[in-house]
Amino acid sequence: MSEPITYAAAGVDVEAGDKAVELMKASVRAAQRPEVLGGLGGFAGLFDASALKGMDRPVLATSTDGVGTKVAIAQAMDRHDTIGFDLVGMVVDDIVVCGAEPLFMTDYIATGRVVPERIAAIVAGIAAGCRQAGVALVGGETAEHPGLLAPDEYDVAGAATGVVEAADILGPQRVREGDVVLALASSGLHSNGYSLVRRVFSSAGWALDRDVPELASTLGEALLTPTRVYAADLLRLLRSPGVDVHALSHVTGGGLAANLARVLPQGTLATVDRATWTPDPIFELVGRLGQVPQLDLEGTLNLGVGFVAVLPAESVDEALRVCGTLDLPAWVLGQVGPRSAAQDGVPVVEGAKGVDGGAVQVVGSHR
């Protein structure tokens, strides 16, 4: 008779999972808000929504995302304390686009083998991102998938919920011709386009531990630079007297033009001038090593612009001043005009992500 088959023999270590929960408790406790009820370990996270009764017409906003193949870099370097920070940025910063305040977040980690210290490091990064964004981490799930994922492989995903007063929702309905497009700097690659980035450096034979003078770090360290989390700063900007933001756009997959087009009304064209900024060296390096065509590079990576605000000209000076106090580099990127103003012979991006909105034309050359 064969030996009995246990859950552990099948590759799932329940005790390791319990140890991971114990190791992450302190991080989760630090990423809370007063509205959170209960503690870690419940079947559902509880959030007291009674404050919403004071709103005229509260509208809930929700978003979910992951960090793509950037996890492959973290796994290859055996460094897992930043990937969770990336996850928060990718999720909560989509919510603030409509003007909503992100309230709480949950996460999901799937792995081939639970290594408690590794899971705790990932969650510590998520908690750190939540603290910076002012978001409560109210729960999550760690799932062990032996046979589906290799022992040291994992993937992460998250979801968040926020709220906005209906009258304050940002978007194309507010944008007008003559509005100015303001750029907010990224911290680097963020968490998009890593399939291209990894392919470029792999084809060039560059190892992650290679020292790269123009990056002032190793290649791997540069590729793991955490995504900038904008939510708290953007909420301060939106609430600043003298600043009237009409629309926001999170520059993620698809690049600057495609994501900006999503928040413009039909019949308008945003003209963006490359001469207004110089992309960080990591972007030039990817383009040069991979001989990546410019339009492909711009349609994949953020090229140094992580967020965009569209606002009336009279709000620009105050918006730039507020961004300066927040240590958030910002500059005038372009302007919104009529669709008929498009320059001949220059590509126009419109209909991106299935949104029948406005159009964007990127002109000029980088400094």
From TrEMBL:
Keywords: ATP-binding, Cytoplasm, Ligase, Nucleotide-binding, Purine biosynthesis. It catalyses: 2-formamido-N(1)-(5-O-phospho-beta-D-ribosyl)acetamidine + ATP = 5-amino-1-(5-phospho-beta-D-ribosyl)imidazole + ADP + phosphate + H(+). Pathway: Purine metabolism; IMP biosynthesis via de novo pathway; 5-amino-1-(5-phospho-D-ribosyl)imidazole from N(2)-formyl-N(1)-(5-phospho-D-ribosyl)glycinamide: step 2/2. It is found in: Cytoplasm. Pfam families: AIRS, AIRS_C. This is Phosphoribosylformylglycinamidine cyclo-ligase. Its EC number is 6.3.3.1. Transmembrane segments: none annotated. Its main location: cytoplasm. Signal peptide: none annotated. Belongs to the AIR synthase family. Residues 52-164 form the PurM-like N-terminal domain. The keyword Metal-binding does not apply. Residues 176-339 form the PurM-like C-terminal domain.
